[in-house]
Amino acid sequence: MKKTTVIIGLLGLSQFAIAQQTRFLNDPQASYKQAKEYFQREQYSLAYPLLKDLQLKQREPDITNQAIPYQELKYYTVVCALKQNEQGAVEKAKNFIDLEDNEARTQMMGFHLAEYYFRQQNYTEAIPLYEKADISNLTNREIADMKFHLGYAYFTNKQFSQAKPLFDAIRQMKDDPNYIDANYYYGFLSFYDKKYRDALDAFTVVEDHENYGKVVPYYVANIYYSLGQKDKALEYAENKLKRGNLHYDLEMRQIVGHAYFEKQQYEKALPYLETYVTKSDKVRREDVYELSYCYYKAKNWNKAIDGFKQISGKEDSLGQNSMYLLGDAYLKTNQKANARNAFLIGASNNSNAKQKEISMYNYAKLSYELGYQDVALTELQKFTQAYPQSEYTNEARELMVSVLANTNNYKDALALLESVKSPSPNARRLYPKILYGRATELANDGMLVTAMELLTRAEIDPNNTAVLPYVQFWKGEISYRLNKLDDAIRYYFEYLKSGVVNGEVNPVNAKYNLGYCFLKKENYKQAQGFFEQVAPASPKINAAPIEQDAYVRVADCYYMNRDYKKAESMYNKVLDYSWPASDYATFQKAMIAGVNNGKEKINLLSSISRKYPTSGLVADANMEVAVTLLANEQFREAIPYLKNVVSDPNSSLKPKAHLKMGIAYYNLDNNTEALNQYTAILKQFPNSPEADAALENARIIYIEQGKTSEYVNFARTMGKEISGTQEDELAYQEAEVQFNNGNFPAAAKKFEEYLTKFPEGKYSLEALYYKSEIYFNQKDWAKAVAGYEILADRVPHKFGEKALVNAARLNFFDLKDYPKAEKYFQKLKDFASSQENKLEAMRGLLRSQYQLQKWDDAVTNAKDLLSQKGIGTDDKVLANMAIAKSHQNAKAYEQAITAYRSVVSLSKSAYGAEARYEIANSFLAQNRLNDAEKAAFEVINKAGSYENWVTKAYILLGDVYFKENDYFNAKATYQSVVDNAKIEELRMEAERKLKETAEAEKKNSKVE
Predict the structure, then answer these.
(1) 502: which strand partners?
(2) Is 779 helix (H, G, I), strand (E, B) or coil?
(3) Which residue among 508, 910, 936, 966 sits deepest, i.e. has the most Cβ atoms within 10 Å of its Cβ?
(4) CB under 8 Å to 822, separation ≥6 — which residues?
(5) How remote is the C-alpha of 128 from its chain's centroid?
């Protein structure tokens, strides 16, 4: 029954609705009235179709007398469309505002268009429309909405000063739907303006609201803190954190941690700060500092270190205090090198005077303890000058004394001591030691005269007791190198009275060198006595090289004293042991055999080329065999040996071999072949002493053959003038007279005039040589070398070897023309007849190629030099350096390191410093960072006198740290170079790398 009633009721309503609809359709006024009622009740979806229909009917031609005002209808229709968020209504609204003359309606349309834009979040378009709306035409609700919406639009566009009063107006109306939101935004803007009490009033309204309760507590806690109510802020923040569900959870933990930190309750602060810093993407330096300090107070040194390291880079009190604490934390963990870097950064910061003082002292002290003696000395000097009254000054002065006593930096130490007007007794006691140390460095660098001067000063110093024996040894060593044999003997004898030992300074080396001194003086008995003290009478097969060489020299002394039996037995021992000198022993045995048995001599000499094909004595052996056979008139048998000499690529005996071969062929009645040999001499070696003999022998053959005219042509073809004027000879004699009378300037001029007239004259060799000698003695190196070079280019001849020596020496030592020096040392190596000159050629060639950085070219000669007997330490050093650099260029780093280590074991000079550095550099190239770091410290600790290599080692250390992503130590290391380097190129390199490191650190750090 109830269902039926409902149905009937619905049907009744339906009929009523149809009747109503029909009435509306037929009665526009009724429709318009109904639409306005819907509009006023905000039922825009119901009003909108009625209004649109009325607008259509208004366009029909049969408009009734009851027509609705078109402007009003248009207004309501457009507003409804805007309320329905129809995009097409925007243009209609704009046209209405622009074209209609009803100010009230246009302003109201502006308001509704602003509301449309607001809903679309187009606040830029909404703001000017709100601003133009007149509230007198709006309802109270619309006025309140407009104020809030305009305030929000201002807020969104960051026009905070315009937004704030609008929010304030709304927050006065508790029943307004925007009351809560207005309080939040007003509170935020008051907080922004630091109007904390206003902000707190507003935030209190919303702090527990579901929309704002996660955010507002953070601001409230900050407000309490800013108002000085720190305990209240702490309590409030902790309580909110316990409740959880906070948007700014990490930031609230920062507030709590900071509050406990300020109360010095570091244990309580730690977990809050730790969570905040760990979980935040970016944090402030202050936050990292506070957390690190909490770790520091908890004695969690490693975590404290990790934090403090991130705060370097700014010269403020926070940075300085961080570095001070970082240094202390490093010391607590026995990381002195890192502590030193921290104190270095702290010492460069002027924010806190006391911390700067302590940091500066600790940096100097740690530099000393870690072996940075040069830096320690400099920093201790700076400290005592800057803080003469410091509590650390006395200790600093004592450390300076210790630094000087233990330093390898003899160069700077000497300069420092000599600059002091009144050195202390302790400093005066150190003076001879420093003189001696610097002298040995100079000696190893080849600066023998300067080294000798320093040794002489050390020798006469009253405080020299500890170093005097070493001074005497080195004075002997330098005297020997300078060929002052009597002085060398005297100093070695003085040294041997003490017998002290320090590396290469030892009695064995002194006696060995004395043996060579007497050997050079041809005092074979004395030489033998000293060599016998080095070489045991019954040597072992694995005897040291020095013992082997001394043993051979003893045999030589017996040989020179004609005790052939004893000499031969010793040479046999060398052969039995197959020592490197076996080729020489065989040669000497042959010479002994030749005294009585020419055949045995020849057999022994012939065996050298077979047994020792690479020996430098092969050509000499062949020549000696040939000479022996020629003496026995075995001309045919001598020829093959002479041919061997001629075919030897490096033999200086070729002219002599050609001449003797010509003689052999002449005696075999083979004049044609004899002339061929003489022609070879005259063409290939026209200036050799053998050339004149060859020409004379050729003349004899032509005369014997009755072909004198052919001889004249032959001589002229060979460039020899055999007849004509005496002008050549007279011009030369005129210069020679001046030379013999000691009038050297005039002689040089006359020799020049002679050479201008007769550049290829009979006496051109003599003129070139003597005028070059004059210029040489006048120290006019350029003119001297010009003549020597011409002579050197014409070798072989009687002045050839001396000219080659001087041309090479002058170009290397005085003119620094290393390409020419290389050329003439190479030529000297090929043509030198004496072992001494051959050795000098090899040494000079190596040094020239070293200067030219021709490492691959230098290797062969370096190995040749290392195989020579009696070479000095400096030769071994440079040879190994060249070999090492060749390997390094080829990226064969292990071989390079091996060779560099040989240099280090031999030298404490510049080469030793460079070798140490290149070992570190090779390790770095292999990415063996720990080894590279240790090797770099070796350079710094043991090569103090060589600033270039020490500075480069510091930069390399920075590179190691950078590769390890240890930006703190990398920056500190580069900064130390920037602050202290005297070599601008290296300082700029460190500065560039410092910037790169700072950029890399910034990119990888969470500190803002």
Answers:
(1) 505
(2) coil
(3) 936
(4) 845, 848, 849, 852, 854
(5) 64
